[in-house]
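User: Before I run my own analysis I want an independent prediction to cross-check against. Here's the chain; please return only the structure tokens and, at the end, one sentence I can use as a sanity check.
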Amino acid sequence: MRYLNENMEKSLGNSSMIRRMFEAGIALRKEFGDENVYDFSLGNPDLPPPPQVKAALERIASGAGRPFAIGYMPNAGYPQLRESLAAKVSAEQCVNMAARNLVVTCGAAGGINVFFHAVLEPGDEVIAPSPYFVEYDFYAANHGGVLIPAPTCENTFALDIGAIERAITPRTRAVIINSPNNPTGVIYSRAELDELAQVISAAERRNNRAIYVIADEPYRFLNFDGVELPGVASCFENAVIIGSFSKNLSLAGERLGYVAVSPKIAEADKLTDALILCNRILGFVNAPALGQQILSSCLDAQVDLEIYRDRRAAMAAALSAAGIEFQMPKGAFYFFPKSPVPDERVFVDALLAEHVLAVPGRGFGRAGHVRMTFCVDRAVIDRAAPAIKRAVERCR
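Assistant: Structure tokens:
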């Protein structure tokens, strides 16, 4: 007797490796204590929100300025917040984003699902340069889509434009660009994006079908070396910008994000109307009211970038001391080092035996690597360094 549909049965079997390791960490802490477990599995920011967030909460609770209210608002979000967000995204993207074409969503994940529900037909393909965020596969499948990985360059994780071009078919509906990238920390250059734009434009003409370029940008503020982070909307005709405030405001649990539709899209207003409708009929209804009210006065705030920069240096030192090959991440808060043995699951098990939690790279579409986050206290990274080295020795 079957109680779930076939797709869900399959999904349960392939459920996120990140969450599995996170849950393994909970069990280890119960047995050995928090101080003896080194959890680098989940990108869950540990920094407190900036002071502006607490001040906004106090102001909202006191009723200062306007009555305390947490009821329904328009499905697209508070109009004033949409205006402010549109101005911010316009500056980042170097394109004039209209508030009319911006929808506040339940996190970037909610935004991606809303967008896919609006544009995907069953069997449509979504290309993701790999390695990629593990949930993309599920998000596409939620709405009848099929995720098509396109491998990035072997050692640098730069975009392999040829691989993306070969992956495009008449069923291609979207390409996801996640920069700064989870899990590699790579920031794609303007030259890469301009070259990709030419390939996509040619494919659109050839197949007589728009190909959306989705810029998934929750890590935009985590740009450690100050390199150019090109506005995707300035590079592509059919760009959709999706962001969140989980990382820069340390509000991951509040589920605040947005979708901004480029004015270059021929039917931008119609697409936006579809997104607003999907926001409602998928059951999100609207993004959290309190979160939106907080955001209205905290758009220019962020956590201290220097703390993450220091942690990046500490993690690099720990990996180097263990003899592990890696590329220094330019952004986000993850390392994606090469496993010391071909099957990275062996290395993950060796790390687990030392109470160190990392995630196998095959879950991100690139075996032979592991993902380790550094959004944890510097002291945890320093204490973990000998354990990481012992895990490498176990493998060898």
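Sanity check: The chain has two domains: 6-49+304-395, 69-296.
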